[in-house]
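Before relying on records like the one below, remember that each one covers exactly one chain. Contacts with other chains, cofactors or solvent are not represented anywhere in the record.
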Amino acid sequence: MRLRGLSRTRRGWAAAVAAGAVAAGLLSGPAASARPAPDPSLTTMSIKSPPGGANVRVLIFYGSAAGGDESPLVNAGIEAIEKIGLSGPLNQRFKVEATDDASVFTDETELGRYNAIVFPTGGGDVLDPEQEAGLEAYMEAGGGFVGLHDAARAEPYSEWFTGLIGARPAAGSPVGAQRATVEVGDRSHPATKDLPVQWKRPDRWLNWTKNPTGSVHTVARVRESTYQPGAGANGWDHPVSWCRDYDGGRSFYTGMGGTVSSYDETDFRAHLRGALLWTTRLVRADCKATITGHYTAKRLTRPNQPGQNDQIGEPHGLVTAPDGRVLYIGRGGADSSQPVITDWNNPDIGKGQGEIHVYDPKTEQVTRAGALTVFGNKGGGDELVKVEEGLLGIELDPRFQENGWVYLHWTPHSHINRDTRMAERRVSRFTLDLATNKLDLGSEKVLLKWPVQIHSCCHAGGGMAWDSHGNLYIATGDNNSSRFSDGYSGNNPQPNFKGVSFADARRTAGNTNNLNGKILRIHPEPDGTYTLPEGNLFTGQETDEGGGKTRGEIYVMGVRNPARIFVDKSTDILYAGWVGPDAGAPSPTWGPAKYDTFAVITKAGNRGWPYCMGNKQPYRDRNLPDPTKPLGWYDCDRPKNESPNNDGLVNLPPVTGNNIWYSPQGGAPDFPRDANGVPSYQQAESTYLLPWLKGGGQAAMNGPVYRYDPASTSTTKWPAYWDGKWFVGDFYDADQPRNAVITDPRTHGEGGLPVHSESLKKIVPVGNDGIKNLMDWRFGPDGALYVLDYGRGFFTSDAKSALWRITYTGGGPTPAAGQLARGAQ
């Protein structure tokens, strides 16, 4: 029965449907009592509560604006949902009824019998205004809705129904069924938790007129690179299944289910089952976690007072303490009112203040804990003028709340040699007074020190991290100029100052006997010394033609400028990112363009620089007598360090491919390779394996892996949806990444590509008034994300330099525990 006519107003009978729903057991607990008292004449229905979930009912409405018999698709959907309702634990079963009679939506008592309504197909204006008002009132009363595939085409003139579904199909959607890969990003929702992360299946894939990401909670996306999406393609972020708490009830929609065979698939039925369990209130689920309005970004620090760094220095790293305090450092650049000395004849050349600040969330106040006099304030400008040394990294002892020990990675000004233009980098331990937040500068214990050249900028690295065994990881840059090799390999052996090369990363990152361009791993001891853990890349005893040729502190070699590293203590896997060289495009002569890189590191190894980048894409060798002339391509499986500046082993460990790399052209560029495995490096022949990535001006800033703490009572912690996801970002905020990714444990240690990614740019806000220049990000013990914004200048702090906190405000899973359906557990 499809009558068209004038409608009573929606509100006019919403209370009546709500009353029927209460009587039928659709609502129970606090939400039901919060509604106005029902009209006694409408509460005559009485439903007993049989064991398990047998009192739970699902209505399938398959009405269509088109005439004719029921379609095979509808029949397949009804049959599948009926079988789902009869399967599984007794307390998760439900009864199913199906109708094409839209008058059910105007019978408030009848409609209130159902915990969820399913639209298996759509097709035009299937409800008259009064019937749509009934559906609206049903949702207001706490009902559940599941839309399948073409349900997104129903009620095309209803803005409310558009919100219920979440998105509308675009005219350019492909027609036939195609096999594609679905990325299942939600590993917690009952509709997706048991599905493969990469779910390969055929269906009729819909494009959307407007991407619903951020306004709905997306649980799965379809990867457009795996099929032909047609003229209306949505791009790398193509949601296919999502849910949301909507207008008092719960709505779940999937764009899948467009083929009869879908309903015979075990995994697709599991997907539907989970959706029905949540919408019927048999289980709770979080459908809020990626809705951007549920996150609040708050700037915690004020601009510095004139001439003072009372709030923040030149941001360069942060760490959170178990009690919630945030300690963050300034590298050494001053604000624009302070002098910058670049004259090597001046004893104060490059002198700056590496500052440590403490933010206390209890008082919301900042304390300047102390400052180290560093070599690190030479401003910007041409090569041989600017500098990236200074106070580079901070970590807290695993027993910080007991001993107050703080580890700092820094370059003391007192140890520079202006004649040779060499300096000493060190990792030192200091003690913080936990009562006053003041650093005892006289408490320094120097754990580790090594030489760095400071004649030419750049690449100091700086990040540090602990594993669960008390090992400290220290990231060091290659201490090499970014010029003199045309922005490619950084392997020019000629430029030097007083015998020390500053343009050949084979002296540093590619050298087994040099601590620069590495990730070191040591075990600090209570007396301020350190020991070497087993499993590092070298023992320190290796020789080549006699004599020591390695350093036992090296865990990873072949990294260029790793500013940020992170160790997931639940797995002890190391996550790292480093900045690439400057070439804007690939060169068939010299090799790949600049690749900024992220890597999952499960064991000691060689990550390639300056021989190979990305997925083992080699550079061309250059050597004396004429570095402008290319020699052969490097062999990533058998690299050799034949530089005249090498004092380590010649034969190096094989290169391990990296998980993520990106260039100005796109994410993970790859090329056809010749018989020797050398890519063509012809830009016209490139393919992009990670289409969610792009660079330009780029500077990789590795982030944390989030671990959800169910025991935490924090009301602002990020939800369980993000558990186990790796945050990767870039200093810049335009086309560059700010994403959460999932990797495959079976392949990620050997450079396997991520299997899922989603943007964080609407949650970690971008733009001039947001976090435009991301310098570091860590989760605190409260489950909130703390972020440093560098500011808008370089080698300075300014009014935009700030510490931010991003909290989750969406609340817990729904429905509330007291609103679960009768018989559910």
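The chain is about 10% helix and 30% strand.
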